[in-house]
Amino acid sequence: MTKALDLCDIQGNVVRAYGRFGFPIARYLLLNVSNGWGGRAWLTEMIPYVTNSATWGTGPDDAKRPVATLNIAINHAGLSALELPLESLNSFSTEFSMGMKQRKDITGDIGASGPEHWDPVWNEDDEHKTVHILLTLNAITPHALENQYQWVTKKIEDSKSAVTLLGGHKGPNGQLLPYQEAHVIFENGLPTAKEHFGYTDGIGDPYFEGIQDARTRVEGRGKQMSDGTWQPLATGEFLHGHLDEAREYPPAAAPILLSRNGTYLVYRKLHQNVASFDALLAREGATYPGGAELMAAKFVGRWRDNGAPLVNAPDAMSKLKWDADFAKASADEKDAMLSDFTYDNDMSGARCPLSGHMRRVNPRASLEIKAGTCPGQFLRNEGAFDTPGALANRRRILRRGLPYGDSTQRDSDQGDHGVIMMMLNADIGRQYEFVQQQWVNYGNDFREANDKDVILGNRSKHLPNSVIHQVDPEGDTPPRFVRNIPLLVETRGGDYFFVPSLTALRLIARGLIDPT
Predict the structure, then answer these.
(1) Which of 164, 199, 222, 268 could form an S-S bond across to 494 if both were Cys, CB 3.0 to 4.6 Å?
(2) DSSP state of 462
(3) Which is nearest to 49 in space by CA: 514, 509, 511?
(4) Do the domain assignments include residue 104?
(5) What is the number of structural domains in the chain?
(6) What DSSP assignment string belongs to 226-289?
(7) Residue at 411 is within a domain
(8) Is residue 24 in a domain?
(9) 3-class SS at 136?
(10) Per-10-residue mean pLDDT for the chain, 516 residues long?
């Protein structure tokens, strides 16, 4: 029997993707701590207002749904500024201790995505302007967000410069702002789940043990079992102090009270080159038998309008039937249609290409392969591991964040439009960095050599990349070569943060962390 999580001890953005719960707007604030005592005093004042993961509702054990949320994450330099003991600081992972800038050769943040091109807030050398703390504010209305922001800035002012709000986030027309704004994209006055390339996003977030979510959502979002059913992933893939998929405790900082129920947060500001994307899609779609929309679906593995997976709707005719079934399905049935699938019948990539973004970042069991009976045919090697998809289960990541900016003017890559991507995982190296380096920027595991993920791959502006769209190995249609893919996404800032539990925040604030 799965042990229930202490939801009141876990910060709310770990268990809950706020955007899906009716919080369409956000502001992300970066802070500096100038002295440890003052910083801890400020943290003490803030802790009672930190949003936890308790279930929202009207029942006797439910918490009241807030109009705005507040969550706190701290990077390694911030923990040092708050005067954690050296032994505890040294017990954090190497990736977290180094920070994202120093890991740029691993993450592919070079060239146009290099730190020298990031927003000014990330490139301050002054120790009093160095990023230490990330505050995330989400709200249900602009008014609630503004009130939350004003309250937070007043708390910062009351610290008497022990904590300062850092400016330097690039906004519209290059203006520098004291925060990073983010919001869902609206169409015809209604909020959508779209991002600036037009894809329906936020589908298939992992389902893990102890999560207080509808059990029906585990299909396709947990781990596939040998009998074809789905079970929740181990909690330790996402939270320290809990067993992971290897039935081990993930490496964590000492003491256990500092790390338990905490996790690492990868914050990335990703600028989207919408004009380059539109031009690529128009060029390739003009000569593609399925047209531009099927080509767009091939880039990601899902149709743009509603997220229909290509493995179940590989062409226009099957998509029409899928749409009709989707329209009359219940909410739970729709979630299953979007998430409950495998690549068992598409191991060669004829439906969803091996280069498809969705397949790259969550290949499910499609990496466990054996050769088929005809050239180019591959089948899943059933029984290769105790659990189908065991390789991918160790790389799963919780995704948070929202789009930012406006892309209604799409004739240029310049402008203010992209995604604030926040990813939560228990092991930055094994999860986020592995996926980013090995599956996004290399293609070896997908039998694609150096071909990169079409959407997120970091390619030189002067050396465009290519990918192959596979076809049925028993058919007569030749594969499609998509050449001269431009750089579609550029990193504009980011770092690695630790999201402490409420218990750990209190210990940090009181100076009671004792690694002995």
Answers:
(1) 268
(2) S
(3) 509
(4) yes
(5) 1
(6) TTS-EEPBPGGGTSTTS--TTSSPPP--SSHHHHTT-EEEEEEEEEE-HHHHHHHHHHHHTT-T
(7) no
(8) yes
(9) strand
(10) 83 94 96 97 98 86 90 98 98 98 96 96 91 98 98 97 97 95 92 95 92 81 90 97 96 97 98 97 95 97 97 96 97 93 92 94 85 68 75 95 95 96 98 97 87 92 83 88 94 98 98 92
